[in-house]
Specification:
Elements (H helix, E strand, L loop, with lengths): L1 E8 L3 H12 L4 E4 L7 H5 L6 E4 L7 E2 L7 H6 L2 H10 L4 E3 L4 E4 L4 H13 L3 E3 L4 E6 L5 E5 L3 E9 L14 H8 L4 E7 L3 E2 L2 H6 L7 E7 L5 E8 L3 E3 L1 H7 L8 E4 L6 H11 L5 H5 L5 H9 L5 H5 L7 H12 L1 E3 L3 E2 L7 E6 L17 E3 L7 E2 L4 H16 L7
Parallel strand pairs: 1-2, 1-10, 2-7, 10-20
Antiparallel strand pairs: 3-6, 4-21, 5-6, 8-9, 9-10, 11-19, 12-15, 12-18, 13-14, 13-16, 14-15, 16-17
Helix pairs in contact: 1-5, 1-14
């Protein structure tokens, strides 16, 4: 039996951050993870360069049943604080659009920061270790049996992540432990995930795979994102689609403004003055990929007779219909690609069960939940990693029990 002050289940972003902070406070800390490598999700993120935070991170970019829950941790360990840590380790990085920060080198640089911090803090990391059971003894110690060793601790931190990317070893163990100790777990679904389409829509857009268009996508509950959409052989992807997927529910449509920065009515009127003899179809192909316009005509989103007309022959109603089709194109997804390709899990441990300052379970002293396993989901663009850093740091500062107590 290994006796330690703190045991962390999960060697991911949140778990390693928490472990290092607890270790620096003089706690004996062990981390267990069933994977072959630590922080595997960090390694593959951002195309291997890790979008490790977002400079614009505020509580507004997080989805949680209790929107106030995220405020404390984000304010006490902000994006700037993590950037300072990265700079202290001499990791070079660059800015991309919308506040996103990426490593100049590889995502391994961020993993190395976490592992170095854990090493300096005296943390023991045990990989290829499956948790078999968790219980509590008469002295209120947590007993964790694993495939390797058994552990006894006063503070048990669950940083096991969500259900996304099962090939990386995603597991529901965090939710099961929460339920075992009487905590409410909210339903989970895949988020930040591509849409699949109904068969008739797949046929409509057959041949468009690889086409990307700058759009504004709006859900039925009026949340909007302005970024690219990408046609794939399975459906729709791209940043705007991934973002809106977190707000979409089965059976709903999404509305896509294909020309968010311009007014098509005005553009057509200008064409009528400057290029009156050209067909609408050919002029629309100057704004969008030709294959995409052909697809909209083939599926009658744009009337074929109207498309073939010279723009000076279009009447007022025809122009309005075309503008409506372009600025408010509706499509009803069949579903999503699910956890296999999703970036995060929506839902999880009900945050009403946890302290927003310490992440300790109100019903079970010494039991903590951090990172993706909680009902906190960030937008695309580094926000979910920032939640891992913030929640891990806050919890690491808070674990208060020692094995000698």
């Amino acid at each position: 039996m290994i006796i330690t002050d703190v045991l962390v289940i999960g060697a991911g972003a949140a778990g390693l951050m928490c472990a290092a902070q607890a270790g620096y406070r003089g706690k004996s800390v062990a981390v267990v993870d069933m994977g072959k490598k630590p922080a595997r999700k960090v390694l593959i993120s951002g195309g291997g360069r890790c979008n490790f935070t977002n400079q614009g991170a505020t509580p507004n970019q997080f989805i949680c049943q209790n929107p106030h829950f995220v405020k404390s941790a984000l304010s006490r360990f902000s994006a700037d604080d993590f950037i300072e840590l990265v700079e202290r380790h001499s990791v070079e990085y660059h800015h991309k659009t919308l506040g996103q920060l990426f490593c100049n080198g590889s995502a391994q640089d961020i993993v190395d920061v976490l592992l170095t911090e854990c090493e300096w803090a005296g943390v023991s990391i045990n990989l290829r270790t499956e948790v078999l059971s968790v219980s509590k003894n008469a002295e209120n110690n947590y007993i964790v049996k694993t495939s390797d060793k058994d552990y006894q601790c006063k503070s048990l931190v669950i940083a096991s992540g969500g259900l996304t990317m099962p090939k990386l070893g995603a597991s529901p163990i965090g939710y099961k432990i929460a339920e075992q100790f009487g905590l409410n777990v909210l339903p989970t679904v895949a988020a930040l995930v591509p849409f699949t389409l109904h068969d008739h829509d797949k046929q409509r857009f057959d041949g468009l795979s690889g086409i990307s268009i700058d759009c504004e996508v709006t859900s039925e509950n009026k949340v909007s994102f302005r970024e690219n959409i990408l046609f794939t052989h399975r459906g729709l992807s791209g940043p705007a689609i991934l973002q809106i997927s977190s707000y979409w529910q089965a059976g709903e449509s999404v509305t896509i403004n294909l020309l968010p920065e311009s007014n098509l009515n005005e553009i057509i009127n200008n064409w009528r003055e400057q290029q009156p003899q050209k067909s609408l179809k050919n002029l629309l192909a100057t704004l969008f990929p030709k294959r995409f316009i052909e697809a909209l005509i083939n599926d009658k989103t744009i009337d074929v007779l109207t498309a073939d007309k010279a723009v000076n022959q279009l009447n007022h109603d025809e122009i309005n219909k075309i503008a409506s089709a372009v600025h408010a194109w509706k499509i009803k997804p069949n579903g999503t690609e699910g956890y296999r390709t999703a970036e995060v899990t929506l839902g999880g441990i009900n945050t009403d069960e946890l302290s927003s300052k310490t992440f300790e379970a109100k019903k079970s002293p010494g039991l903590y939940f951090i990172g993706e396993v909680t009902d906190v989901t960030g937008w695309l663009g580094g926000y979910n990693f920032q939640w891992c850093w913030s929640s891990g740091w806050a919890c690491g500062q808070a674990v208060r029990y020692s094995s000698s107590e």
